[in-house]
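Colleagues,

For the teaching module next term, I've prepared a clean inverse folding example: a structure given as tokens, and then the sequence designed for it. I'd like students to try predicting residues themselves before seeing the answer, so please don't circulate the second half yet.
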């Protein structure tokens, strides 16, 4: 049963909200013989598979890549010195209000002992002093007051010149109202109207906006407001985050795979699905090396892969025309670039493990892995070097090598000690698999439940009824897909926790009105 939790978030008493509750009068386990196929072994697919398998569903997970994880995957690579290192798809922050995702992770590690806190994460610039958003109070308005008092970039003139309606909008998130007012507006125009100085906008908003894999002009202003509420103004845990102390494969995917297989699930990697279609009362799944029949099918792919799969499955488009239309309208964000560098020397001792970057043409963040995870720390100690990963969240360049070269040059401008460092090894990636949230796109993306019985969709682009972002949206959509299976079987739902779903000033009229 769902509880919309529409009460306003109270200052100083901000708590997580129970968004979905389990009906105690319904059975916990599914009827014998219930089965499901999950296409996609990333966060969304594995979250769905875990919840289903725990209730007695016979689950088969089909993953096209040779390893689980999607954009959180990891794989081994041999360096020129002969040592083996795990390469990851890119740095990810595990925020403490990712309640659903953390609940899934606890299946493999109940204490989450593999996570370690990142003490600070400054926003750095080649022009202005660093800003550090860590350590602020969690509840508004205290977090805003603390930020105003200690920020080097937010001055009295900014506060006096700020458009009060735009400021109210940031504090007044409400799903229906916010998207009705601002979804047709792009984030760049929204921030232009705010009236902040270039310094304030660059240091406090630009890095935040680009972390959603979109440039400001291509991101819905409503989505920006929603994420600002989710990560900052409506976050009961504060804006601190943790990172794994080892690679994702060791910490997450290998334990979760063992957990699933221990529950009787089948996990098949290197098994791309070529088409899906209706089959009597169920679904047919055609994979590279097998054909399956299932009553319950969950498609947990990235937006481009889902769009291609549905388009290449004409029988599915015939029975699910709304899903086909929404998949056709899905937009993939511009490519993101990742370059991991093995240097022959360490970076300066004052460099933090993670830094957001603002004001650079390409570089959006720097992660010093040799200060974050044990295998990288061990390599750095044995060689005297360091391992640094550079990210461009929405890259304007078109090839991986050119993007990596640009990121390397921008790093040297920010951290001069890296200019003469010798690169012993380099791993570069340029990939477009993240979802875009352009203006006017709310309500056009697929939801978890489709217009074809037995077919569900999960992923970080899916329209879900509760506010969540990035990894949490993936996990939440996977659990909601599992809950939809349970609802059809009259089985109790898996509980879901979330942040307060409305802002401090939700319902307060605008100044102009």
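(Answer key — instructors only)
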């Amino acid at each position: 049963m769902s509880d919309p939790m529409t009460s306003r978030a109270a200052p100083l008493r901000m708590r997580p909200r129970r968004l979905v509750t389990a009906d105690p009068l319904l059975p916990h386990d599914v009827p014998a013989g219930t089965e499901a196929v999950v296409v996609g072994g990333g966060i969304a697919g594995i979250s769905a598979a875990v919840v289903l398998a725990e209730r007695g569903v016979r689950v088969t997970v089909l993953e096209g890549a040779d390893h689980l994880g999607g954009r959180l995957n990891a794989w081994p690579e041999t360096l020129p010195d002969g040592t083996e290192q795990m390469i990851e798809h890119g740095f990810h922050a595990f925020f403490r209000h990712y309640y659903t995702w953390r609940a899934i992770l606890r299946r493999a590690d109940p204490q989450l002992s593999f996570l370690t806190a990142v003490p600070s994460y400054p926003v750095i610039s080649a022009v202005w002093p660093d800003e550090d958003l860590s350590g602020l109070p969690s509840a508004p308005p205290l977090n805003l007051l603390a930020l105003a008092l200690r920020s080097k970039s937010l001055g009295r003139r900014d506060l006096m010149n700020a458009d009060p309606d735009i400021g109210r909008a940031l504090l007044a998130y409400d799903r229906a109202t916010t998207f009705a007012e601002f979804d047709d507006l792009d984030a760049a125009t929204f921030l232009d109207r705010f009236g902040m100085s270039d310094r304030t906008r660059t240091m406090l908003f630009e890095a935040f906006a680009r972390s959603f894999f979109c440039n400001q002009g291509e991101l819905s202003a409503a989505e920006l407001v929603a994420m600002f509420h989710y990560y900052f103004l409506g976050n009961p845990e504060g804006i601190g985050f943790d990172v794994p102390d080892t690679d994702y494969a060791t910490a997450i995917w290998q334990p979760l795979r063992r957990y699933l297989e221990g529950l009787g699930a089948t996990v098949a990697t290197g098994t791309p699905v070529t088409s899906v279609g209706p089959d009597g009362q169920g679904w047919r799944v055609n994979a590279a090396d097998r054909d399956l029949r299932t009553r319950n099918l969950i498609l947990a792919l990235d937006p481009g892969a889902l769009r291609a799969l549905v388009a290449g499955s004409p029988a599915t488009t015939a029975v699910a025309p709304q899903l086909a239309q929404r998949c056709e309208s899905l937009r993939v964000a511009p490519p993101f670039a990742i370059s991991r560098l093995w240097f022959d020397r360490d970076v300066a001792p004052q460099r933090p493990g993670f830094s957001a970057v603002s004001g650079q043409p390409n570089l959006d963040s720097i992660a010093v892995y040799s200060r974050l995870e044990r295998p990288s720390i061990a390599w750095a100690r044995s060689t005297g070097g360091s391992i640094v990963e550079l990210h461009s969240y929405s890259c304007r360049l078109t090839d991986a090598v050119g993007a990596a070269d640009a990121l390397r040059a921008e790093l040297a401008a920010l951290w001069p000690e890296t200019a003469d460092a010798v690169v012993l090894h380099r791993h570069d990636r340029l990939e477009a698999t993240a979802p875009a949230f352009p203006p006017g796109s709310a309500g056009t993306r697929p939801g978890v439940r489709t217009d074809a019985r037995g077919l569900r969709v999960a992923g970080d682009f899916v329209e879900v009824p509760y506010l969540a972002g990035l990894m949490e949206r993936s996990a939440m959509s996977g659990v909601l897909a599992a809950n939809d299976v349970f609802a059809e079987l009259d089985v109790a739902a898996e509980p879901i926790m979330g942040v307060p779903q409305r802002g401090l000033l939700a319902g307060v009229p605008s100044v102009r009105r």
